[in-house]
Design goal:
The structure holds two protein chains of two kinds.
Chain A (H helix, E strand, L loop, with lengths): L4 E4 L6 E3 H17 L7 E5 L4 H12 L3 E4 L7 H7 L4 E4 L2 H7 L6 E3 L1 H4 L2
Parallel strand pairs in A: 3-4, 3-5, 5-6
Antiparallel strand pairs in A: 1-2
Helix pairs in contact in A: 1-2, 3-4
Chain B lengths: L19 H10 L5 E5 L6 H11 L8 E5 L8 H9 L10 H9 L4 E6 L5 H14 L3 E7 L8 E5 L14 H12 L9 H10 L4 H8 L7 H14 L9 H15 L3 H10 L8 H7 L10 H10 L4 E2 L6 E2 L2 H13 L3 H25 L5 H13 L1 H14 L2 H9 L14 H9 L8 H17 L3 H14 L4 H17 L3 H17 L3 H17 L3 H18 L2 H17 L3 H18 L2 H18 L2 H18 L2 H17 L3 H17 L7 H14 L1 H13 L2 H9 L23 H10 L5 H8 L3 H15 L4 H10 L6
Parallel strand pairs in B: 1-4, 1-5, 2-3, 3-4
Antiparallel strand pairs in B: 6-7
Helix pairs in contact in B: 1-2, 3-4, 4-5, 6-7, 6-8, 7-9, 8-10, 9-10, 11-13, 11-14, 15-16, 15-17, 15-18, 17-18, 18-19, 18-20, 19-20, 20-21, 20-22, 21-22, 22-23, 22-24, 23-24, 24-25, 24-26, 25-26, 26-27, 27-28, 28-29, 28-30, 29-30, 29-34, 30-31, 30-34, 31-32, 31-33, 31-34, 32-33, 35-37, 35-38, ...
Classes of the chains: A alpha/beta, B mainly alpha.
Protein name (chain B): Putative ATPase/DNA-binding CsgD family transcriptional regulator
GO biological process, one term (chain B): regulation of DNA-templated transcription
GO molecular function (chain B): DNA binding
Chain lengths: 116, 804
């Protein structure tokens, strides 16, 4: 496989090659399935812009679900989380995690857990 | 053991509504995940959901699913004990109970449901982590308001029920409300749906809140309830104002329901919070009927609370309980009232009285049949949860005298019924408190009783010391006096100090006879006869054993009858009368079956098996030893396992199978060492020299070391099944992978992965989008159970999937 770079993380400056992307995406998608994500579901992703976000979003799509992205510093975050119909959320953001307590989200995964 | 029960899940009190997808998801998670914790606020339905999941997983676990209810206990050290009790394990001196549980479940495939962990998170987490680490086939499902935080735990937040959308009647919350309203006798028509939907939204779909509201539909319409709940929300007085909205909604619903109660109903509800486990009307009448209430109103008041869904009852309204959330609310109300001390003191006194009465019927009252003695024993054991709560209060309120009294009348805490000698812990805790207000005689009695508990844990030195201290100070209770003397005598006999023992045994006999206490008289006669056997006086021993049996028979307690019968068997076996020995052991076995005491039962089965083997009745020997072995394993008692192995060695020798005899004997040696016991005996030396002569030095040594290197239970099973020791077999072959599950497209992509192509390259080749490729790969991994692309490539190459 070629070493084509598909992403440069704006925070760390680290690069993500196509090979890394495909591999992490596959692993993350398999894990999402195991956590109950099915075709037609919505998954909330509240991660800062970067390679984690890219891989997480692609993994959610690969698992057959729809991505509902949320900016960690955005307005109305609490409202969006609490009223969301998502069953799973991918986030490390403390405000999003607190809001999840009052939502219908069953499972919360961190970026690290997802391996994304 | 094919027909042994495979679960202990309680029956559900009413219909379970909704959550189909969640149940399916959760069941599927146990394929990969070993621990799932259902988290959420009280009243959100964690327990009901967990029970549903557990029921559905019944066929997935060969050794079943087992619920451990933790709401009723308050001490961290009781967590493991509660788990041990569910699995029928018994405690043993010098053995960590967690270790016993892990050993017992190491080879099992089962689901352990730890229900209501939040008040004991640390102890529960510790126990769960030990189980997961030591028992590969065990999965844990926990319910808790907070996570256990153990490795590998998946935290699953239980959401409220679905709220009504465009079609209100399809929503889970609406369905639950309507179902419970119907159960309360209210048929709500189509026209009330909008109000029901509004109410469900106001209650945020919280199951407990919906149940409480539905129970009121005979008096109020759904619209009226919704209005009042809204008002209530503004007036909320209890709970934490910064708590999550859901918790506040629930608090509002509970408060609202509570405020609608009459003063008398409120009083009863808060008093009920002192009852620890399930309860019956009788206990309510005794503990909760103080003025302003009265005994005659209890049925009506309790019924009213049941109708309002604040108290849950079984179908025939015989047993009642409070949901944990309601119990906590009621306990807070009780703490706010001025009657907490009064009610808890009364609970302690009532328990004391009930247990004393049961104790009298079980041990002291003359002329009682064994069935009545057994009923008293069972009744006492059924009050264990309340007894523990009462002892906890005795400690907290400094009422040491009453606490000690309750301990001394606790047959349920003793080893008679086969349970752990938990009484030791309670007496020791109580004796560590300020004793300045306790009369010295009472302390003496408590120590005498403590001695009994210590001896039944095989703790000879401490038992003797406690008995002596107790004897020096006690007065006023001849039963305990005689018991302490018997314990001292028994301990000394087992230490080989017969001369000192006889002094105590004679005193025990004198006290017991003077007071018509046949239980202790029989016990002392057995000890005296053991001493005769020790000195080789067989006829004297036989006479003593017969006397003991006659006195035990006159008393009628199944346990003392079993002990006397067992001792008669031992006396007969010692003088070589094997037929009589077998008969006596069998009599002891049937008494112990009545009592449900499995530790002593395993011992007597092992003895019976040994005698049958010597008599040449090998099938009978095998049958008894098989049961003894299963029981020893179930209760996790190493002493019982040890006796099984000794008997198995005898059986193997009787069959001329020297190899198995050596194997069993070496396992005995290992087990004894692990228990800190002396090993080696004339019998073993004789066996080994016979084996060396027949099998040769090398084979004997190899058998001996094999018996020592494997788990005792495994060795015992092998010897029991008469299998000749075989060389170890190689690792199992891995089964074929189910490649045929893949679709043609998935096979094609799997093949292309062996060429190391990127998603984009595959997409270009197949003229599809990279996202679609990623999705196919996710499906392949799902079907094959893999977690990386590389695994698929290896699999495809191994299975000859074409790469182009």
């Amino acid at each position: 496989m070629d070493q084509r770079i598909v992403m440069i993380d704006p925070g760390t400056g680290q690069t993500l090659t196509e090979e890394q992307h495909d591999e992490r995406l596959a692993t993350a998608a398999a894990l999402l399935r195991r956590r109950g994500v099915r075709a037609g579901d919505t998954v909330l992703i509240c991660l800062p812009v970067g390679s984690d976000l890219l891989v997480a979003a692609d993994a959610v799509m690969a698992a057959g679900a729809a991505v509902s992205p949320l900016a960690p510093d955005g307005d109305g975050l609490w409202e969006r989380v609490v009223t969301s119909s998502a069953r799973l959320m991918i986030s490390d953001d403390p405000r999003a995690l607190a809001a999840a307590q009052d939502s219908r989200i069953r499972v919360v995964m961190s970026a690290a857990e997802l391996g994304a | 053991m094919a027909d042994a029960p495979r679960h202990n899940l309680p029956a559900e009190p009413n219909r379970f509504v909704g959550r189909e997808r969640d149940i399916g998801d959760l069941c599927a998670m146990f394929d990969e995940t070993r621990a799932v914790t259902l988290c959420g606020v009280g009243g959100i339905g964690k327990t009901r959901l967990a029970l549903r999941v557990a029921h559905r997983l019944l066929d997935d676990f060969a050794d079943g699913v087992w619920a451990v209810e933790l709401a009723k206990i308050s001490r961290p050290e009781l967590v493991v004990q509660e788990i041990a009790e569910v699995f029928g394990l018994e405690s043993e001196r010098g053995r960590d109970l967690t270790d016993a549980v892990v050993t017992r479940l190491a080879g099992s495939s089962c689901l352990v449901l730890l229900d209501n962990c939040e008040h004991l998170v640390e102890a529960t987490a510790h126990a769960a982590a030990a189980l997961l680490a030591g028992c590969p086939g065990v999965r844990v499902l926990a319910t808790s308001r907070e996570a256990l935080r153990i490795p590998g735990e998946l935290i699953w937040h239980v959401p409220p029920l679905d709220l009504p959308g465009s079609d209100p009647s399809a929503a889970e919350s609406v369905q639950l409300f309507l179902n419970r309203a119907r159960a309360a006798g209210t048929q709500l028509g189509e026209e009330s749906l909008p109000d029901v939907a509004r109410l469900c939204r106001a209650l945020d779909g919280l199951p407990l809140a919906l149940e409480l509201a539905a129970a009121r539909t005979r008096m109020l319409s759904p619209g009226q309830i919704a209005d009042r709940i809204d008002d209530r929300f503004a007036l909320l007085t209890s709970g934490d104002r910064t708590a999550p909205a859901r918790q506040r909604t629930l608090a509002a619903a509970v408060e609202w329901s509570h405020d609608l109660l009459s003063e008398a109903e409120k009083t009863l509800l808060r008093r009920l919070s002192v009852l620890a486990g399930g309860f019956d009307l009788d206990l309510v009448e005794r503990v909760c009927a103080e003025p302003p209430l009265s005994e005659s109103r209890m049925v009506t008041l309790l019924g009213a609370l049941v109708d309002k869904s604040l108290v849950i009852c079984d179908e025939d309204r015989g047993r009642f309980r409070l949901l944990d959330t309601i119990r906590q609310f009621a306990a807070e109300r009780l703490a706010d009232s001025d009657e907490e001390r009064m009610v808890r003191d009364l609970h302690l006194r009532v328990l004391c009285k009930l247990q004393e009465r049961a104790f009298d019927a079980e041990f002291l009252t003359p002329g009682v049949t064994w069935r009545e003695r057994l009923a008293a024993h069972t009744g006492s054991r059924d009050r264990l949860a309340d007894q523990r709560a009462a002892l906890e209060w005795a400690l907290r309120s400094g009422n040491i005298t009453m606490g000690l009294r309750l301990c001394m009348r606790s047959s349920g805490l003793l080893s008679l019924g086969g349970s752990a000698a938990e009484v030791v812990g309670w007496v020791e805790r109580l004796l560590r408190q300020d004793l300045s207000l306790v009369v010295p005689e009472q302390i003496g009695l408590a120590k005498g009783y403590l001695a009994y508990g210590l001896l039944s844990r095989d703790d000879l030195d401490s038992g003797l010391a406690a008995a002596r201290e107790g004897l020096a100070g006690m007065a006023g209770d001849p039963f305990v006096l005689a018991t302490a003397h018997t314990v001292a005598g028994g301990a000394l006999l087992r230490m080989g100090r017969g001369d000192e023992a006889t002094v105590h045994i004679d005193s025990a006999l004198a006290v017991a006879r003077e007071n018509g206490d046949r239980f202790n008289e029989a016990g002392a006669l057995i000890e005296a006869s053991i001493y005769s056997l020790q000195r080789g006086r067989q006829r004297e021993a036989q006479r003593g054993a017969e006397d003991a049996y006659a006195v035990a028979n006159a008393h009628g307690h199944p346990w003392i009858l079993a002990m006397a019968a067992s001792h008669l068997g031992l006396a007969a076996e010692t003088r070589g009368d094997l037929e009589s020995a077998a008969e006596h052991y069998d009599a002891a076995i049937s008494w112990l079956r009545e009592l449900g005491n499995r530790g002593d039962l395993a011992q007597n089965l092992a003895r019976s098996g040994r005698v049958c083997a010597q008599l040449g009745d090998l099938p009978a020997a095998r049958e008894r030893l098989a049961e003894a072995l299963a029981m020893a394993r179930e209760c996790g008692l190493r002493q019982a396992m040890n006796r099984c192995l000794v008997s198995l060695a005898t059986l193997a020798r009787a069959e001329g199978d020297l190899e198995s005899a050596v194997l069993a004997s070496s396992a005995v040696a290992t087990l004894r060492e692990s228990m800190g016991q002396r090993t080696g005996s004339v019998k073993v030396d004789e066996l080994l020299s016979a084996a060396r002569a027949k099998l040769g030095e090398g084979r004997t040594t190899s058998l001996w070391s094999r018996g020592r290197s494997r788990p005792p239970y495994e060795v015992a099973t092998q010897v029991l099944e008469g299998r000749r020791p075989e060389p170890a077999t190689g690792p199992l072959q891995v089964g074929p992978v189910r490649g045929s599950l893949l679709t043609a497209r998935e096979q094609e992509i799997a093949g292309m992965l062996t060429r190391g192509l990127s998603n984009k390259a595959i997409a270009e080749e197949l003229v599809i989008s990279p996202a679609t490729v990623a999705r196919h790969i996710a499906n392949i991994m799902d079907k094959l159970g893999y977690t990386s692309r590389a695994q698929i490539a290896v699999w495809a190459a191994d299975h000859g999937v074409p790469s182009a």
